[in-house]
Amino acid sequence: MRKWAACAFALALCASGALADSAAQTFRLAGGELAALLNALAAQGRIQILYDAELLAGRRAEGLDGTYSVEAALTRLLRGSGLEAVAVNADTFVVKPATRSTLPPPALDTPVVPRQAPEIELSRVLVNDAGISRLAMSPTMPVTEITREQIDSSGYTTLFDLLKAQPGIQVANQPEAMAATSDANFRTGASGAAAVALRRLGSKSTLFLVDGRRIAGYGLAPDGTGTVPDLNAIPLAMIERIEILRDGASAIYGSDAVAGVVNILLRRDFAGAEASVYAGASDRGDAAAQQASVSWGARTASGIGLLLNLNYLHASPLTGDQRSWYSLDQRRQGLRDLRSLYSFPGNVIYDDGSIEAAQGCAPRNLTARGLCVLDGAKFTTLQNGNNGKSLLGRLDVPLDGSTRLRLDLRVTDLVQRQQAAPSAAQLVLASLQEESEPQPVQWLYSFNDIGPVRETTRSTLLSLGAGVDGLIGSWTWSVDASAQRNRVVDTIDGLVRDDAFRLSVDGERYTFGDTPPSAALRALMAPRAVRRGSSTLEEASFATSGAAFDLPAGAATLSTGAELRREGVEQRPGLTLQSGHLLNQPREYPLSRHRVASAAFVKLDLPILESLGADLAWRVEKTGRFAAHGAPTLGLHWRPAEGLLLRASSSSGYRAPTLHELYQPRSIGNPETVWVPESAGPCVDTLASTTGQAACLLSVTRGGNPALRPETSHTTAWGLVWSPSPSFSLSADVYRSVRRNEIAGVPVAYTLDHADRFADVVVRTQDGRIAALNDVLVNLARTTTRGIDAEARWDVDFGRAGQLRLNVGLNYLDALDRRGAPGVPVARSAGYAATPRLTGVSTARWALGDWIVGANYRYVGSYRLRPYADYVAPCAAYRAAQGKCSVPPFGLLNLNVTYSGIPHWAFTLSVNNVADHQPRYYEELSGGYNPAFDDPVGRYYAFRATYRF
């Protein structure tokens, strides 16, 4: 904390004085799209202009050529549009539908002294159509904007929860990574990371930006395919708004933007000081959380701006034993009891196949058949406990009339805690009885007296950025550089050594439940395991934008730029994890790799006719040892009538393999159930069989493949925006995206049919039985996704009865088809396997005087429990008999009320999950809970108080 205070003090020394007034300037802007003209005006005038992209879609304006104050220039551009620009501080304006007024408009050709700005905060938008600082708000591509107003109305307290509730967004990595399968989950080592993805194409195909910059990945990888961005490292209280581009955007943003881009814009300008405190708890009295935030900002008479924001969050963990519905025993839903036979003190298996409980099993854990069971779900974390501290500092310094220096610092320190069921083992027994009696051969045992497996992850993020931007004639330019590092220390207690029964301390040995082990023996049997990791990203970029040449309908705008970045990962498992002597844990190996990527892009906006325009973009990028790859994009937009915009786009994308996909050392994991065609021959351990295939228990090894190639994609979209009035807009876009050369493991059936190409994948015994698989990553898979995005906004002014703002967003998934390799049957997943076809979210905000009432409703459609259509195994008869082959649709409603009638104060009362909806999920091994959609907490009450100085 001392380091943070020192950084904040150093930034604070740069600010002094009072706010500056605007002055008359010379503006020369050719007529064209209103959004582009506002962007150019903001760049030339060194101001901030905020607007709803759909509100401006298809609107055009005459240019400017003369000397005006900023307010006069804005008034002239917006003349006749039904819009107005409202100043919220000295250099920030919001464009919104014009309000009725009896006052005459100001003179257009003379400077106007701005009115005193109210002390309210609003983010500063760095408008740069090259896409370095914010998304290029082109009318040809759908961009969803989540405003601060919508964030406040949502009721969510974390960025991860907010984004995973958006329609069509997939949870790619859940912070609570454990399930009720004991210690096996700890092989991932990234349980602290939270990530989502667009178009259901995975987080590595979605590019995440903060203020236009890429985000360094979480310090530890969730699997062998690479790191993910950790959304938990960005406090929601620090965010001003979020922009989501749902189409492939590699032509502008480069590798990883295959499915789209999520740009998170942090708070930038702030006048005055504000302190906020938050406290919440479920109506059951648990899952408590406390949060505090302090912001201070000012701008001097010379134009220097400073912002400091501090956040603190503490959240208590929620475990499975605190929710009665979370259990592996789902008989309450008419399903099966799948509590584990790996229990305490366990079950003994005899050579005749009989099983009986070991002596000492608690009566509550005995089944009707007399077996001892363990409900691992009761040990499992449903919601992590965490403590987080974060700092955001910004400095904005004018160097001369048209050049400005920007500095920013972001630091986050986040500690998360979770747990899972105790380690378990299948022990081989020696003969203990007369040979005439059944002989005990195995013991299914859980180390409950060692305790649950507990994991603590501490991640520290440091991000430094600097930029200079300016104006040369009518051209804007910017130079930007940044450095980020995410370090993680992962500590795990409770993992038991595989030779635990041979260990002793001062003559004490483990007695398997007879006598609790001493602290010394426990520490020897379950040594603390530590893994460390880091992810680094350094970037430098240059961009420029301006009018290139004149067309009959206006000036063509050219944006171009170049980027250079260096990315690296380092994974350092401790000696305990490298030893390979832990139950259920593969041996881990260190990894340290870096690479450099460079790129150049060009974007051209062409006003072909008054009602017709086009966008052309091309990017060439070279990543590491891979050859340079080009990605083009073409967009068209046509306005056939007032208030109606038609748009279409076609874009190519690509994604270079991650460093983990290329170089991850090969390791042996736990045995897995793999479906193998019967034609391939028998397996060593066959669990079940159906027509044409058998379920085999195989040992599987996994690792990187240096021979991988980049993935490629092509996305097309068609849509319309209908805005008959400034207070209403409706948009709908149909999209289709195909990802080729997809990186994935080789399907077993394909390897067996192409044994000459994959001779080393299938491992057989001397008699030809299949014993193991060497899973190899290859570029064989292909995924096609197709659907519809729709959004609507409606503002209603009821006069004295208040103002109502409604926002609705929907995604309908028509297809999600994946082919694992050429010739392999397509797995059609839309509507199956936790992939609902219809998802939606709507927000409502009603303001009346000192009161604001907000509501957020999230809808999740039904989906079937089978992995995909045409899956060989039918729905189980016991499920079909009760109509539980599909998960029913459901909705979650959040409400909040804000009162600001006391000077300087604002109070908000929130109720999340108002109906106290409990999960209804029919997979027993998941405990009746799907973490991608379900809310485990239930009805939740929260109170926030804010004081503005």
From TrEMBL:
Q: Which domain of life is it from?
A: Bacteria
Give the location in the cell. Answer: Cell outer membrane
Sequence similarity: Belongs to the TonB-dependent receptor family.
Q: Where is the signal peptide?
A: 1-20
Membrane topology, from the record: Multi-pass membrane protein
In its UniProt entry, what is this protein called? TonB-dependent receptor
Q: Which UniProt keywords apply?
A: Cell outer membrane, Ion transport, Iron, Iron transport, Membrane, Receptor, Signal, TonB box, Transmembrane, Transmembrane beta strand, Transport
> Do you know which Pfam families this protein is assigned to?
Plug, STN, TonB_dep_Rec_b-barrel
Q: Where is the Secretin/TonB short N-terminal domain?
A: 47-98
- What InterPro entries does this protein map onto? Beta-barrel_TonB, Beta-barrel_TonB_sf, Plug_dom, Plug_dom_sf, Secretin/TonB_short_N, TonB-dep_rcpt-like
